[in-house]
Amino acid sequence: MVKPVVIVVGADKGGVGKTTVSRTLLDYFSANNVQTRAFDTESPRGTLKRFHPEITEIVDMTTTADQMKIFDTLNSGVSVTVIDVRAGLLSRALASLRDIGFLDDARSGQTTFAVFHILGSSIASLDEIAETSSFMSGAKYFLVKNFINDTQFFQWDQSTYNSYFHRIKHATELTIPKLNEMAYEQVEVASVPFLNFVANKGQHDDATNYSFVLRGYVRHWLANVWNEYDRIQLTDLVGAKSVTRSGEK
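== CobQ/CobB/MinD/ParA nucleotide binding domain-containing protein ==
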């Protein structure tokens, strides 16, 4: 049986673009032929589900019943589970994973667990790192600088940042570059995965007529994001082989 992989994407601060990162992960796994399902914890209305409705379920991660929907079904045959955690809920969600014994399973190697922690530009994000670090034993921990919202990193002294960062062994930094504003806006309006926008496909995989220029911007940006995922060997993490992807040129 293939070992299940759980990826949590979140932050304790809102407005840092965590769902954008979740969307790029889902596109990346799709391009690499990795079976993936997703849970959107922005209950009752989900943002991630709007872009990936066929593989995404909206849940309230604070309830036992919805926790069971996620973790009692990890061996359902789908390789990767991506959980897009609602803003402000990351530490609480990780505490729940500790309480149900999931973190123990990760430490013992029964499950592969990764956290993509989306950083903001304020000192509060450093405090988040300190708080989150206590849950990271047995997990792959990625600190993500997301420039999608034109965030300016960092509003703190580098030595201060390093003092927080080095508290966590084996933490890895990732950078999500900025996407052209008009291109990002058009993908939002289209409500389709980035991959579909590049391929000129609508909500039901129907051919459409998105701007050639904007599709080019998204294609170039998505390739840069995927280069970051290749750099951290994300396909190896989930036990898959990297393939030549149609979204890249």
